[in-house]
UniProtKB/TrEMBL annotation:
<dbReference type="Pfam" id="PF13561">
    <property type="entry name" value="adh_short_C2"/>
</dbReference>
<protein>
    <submittedName>
        <fullName>SDR family oxidoreductase</fullName>
    </submittedName>
</protein>
<dbReference type="InterPro" id="IPR057326">
    <property type="entry name" value="KR_dom"/>
</dbReference>
<dbReference type="InterPro" id="IPR036291">
    <property type="entry name" value="NAD(P)-bd_dom_sf"/>
</dbReference>
<dbReference type="InterPro" id="IPR002347">
    <property type="entry name" value="SDR_fam"/>
</dbReference>
<feature type="domain" description="Ketoreductase">
    <location>
        <begin position="8"/>
        <end position="191"/>
    </location>
</feature>
<keyword id="KW-0560">Oxidoreductase</keyword>
<comment type="similarity">
    <text>Belongs to the short-chain dehydrogenases/reductases (SDR) family.</text>
</comment>
Length: 264
């Protein structure tokens, strides 16, 4: 299926690893022109060198900075051109019991999942509304947002709030022709889980088991019996951020291998 993205100008945050990197690759394959946003300039340059097509651009930016939305939109319009869409992938997670969570953990999740996205949408609303056919935004949430867990409460609650934010902005921008949707991935074979010190190691330490057993248990809890691949999430996102999903807005698509027993 041609997603009709050739020449479209799209922002991707969290673009150097995991789902964000897979989204960038998928959109570039479709002929989109991208602004890649992440904190590490060296990793951005490396990611840029792997992408086909273009011209693409990069911006080293912490998305939680109060002026990040303005900076990202300005850089995109200056370096790439018009703003047709955005995929907000930046995120982080730390497994911790309820009593172990600090106020800083809670603030971090609120900043990443709610305020960063809200600030971007405030600054991007006008350029998105001016896009031919209307702009599109996809917020990358989590299955944890649909079913928060006490083992990772700050993250799950933050992702729940992000889903609510996405729905509220969808209603706000729909009269201007801008579509806002969210995806809720389950556990993914990515750095968040698999990197040293990541969620697999954290789960192993919490349960007093080795890393392989922790991963086996986590994968067994997914009805499909495995973790997802970043590319599988990127495919769903690419459809949502394309003109081909022109009647979808305010949705929260589960792409979680059946992890959350809900049809919402």
């Amino acid at each position: 299926m041609d997603l009709e993205l050739r020449g479209h100008a799209i922002v991707v945050t969290g673009a150097t690893s995991g789902i964000g990197a897979a989204v960038a690759a998928r959109l570039a394959d479709e002929g989109a022109r991208l602004l890649l946003v992440a904190r590490d300039e060296q990793r951005l340059r490396a990611a840029l060198g792997t992408l086909p097509g273009g011209p693409h651009a990069t911006l080293a930016q912490d998305v939680t900075a109060p002026d990040a939305g303005r900076r990202i939109v300005a850089a995109h319009l200056d370096r790439v051109g018009r703003l047709d869409g955005a995929v907000l992938c930046a995120g982080a997670s730390r497994r911790a019991g309820v009593a172990e969570l600090t106020e800083e953990d809670w603030r971090t999740q609120w900043e990443l999942n709610v305020l960063a996205a809200h600030r971007f949408l405030l600054d991007a609303a006008d350029p998105l509304a001016a896009a031919d056919g209307g702009g599109r935004v996809v917020l990358v949430s989590s299955s944890s947002g649909k079913r928060p867990s006490p083992s990772n409460m700050a993250y799950g609650v933050g992702k729940s709030a992000q889903l609510a934010l996405s729905r509220a902005w969808a209603e706000h921008l729909a009269p201007r022709g801008v579509r806002v949707n969210a995806v809720a991935p389950g556990p993914i074979d990515s750095e968040m889980w698999l990197a040293p010190g990541g969620l697999a190691d954290q789960a192993a330490e919490a349960a007093g088991i080795d890393r392989d057993e922790a991963l086996a248990r986590a994968r067994a809890r997914v009805p499909l019996g495995r973790f997802g691949r970043p590319e599988e999430i990127a495919d769903a996102i690419a459809l949502l951020v394309s003109p081909r999903a022109g009647f979808a807005t305010g949705a929260a698509w589960s792409v979680d291998g059946g992890s959350v027993p809900s049809f919402l």
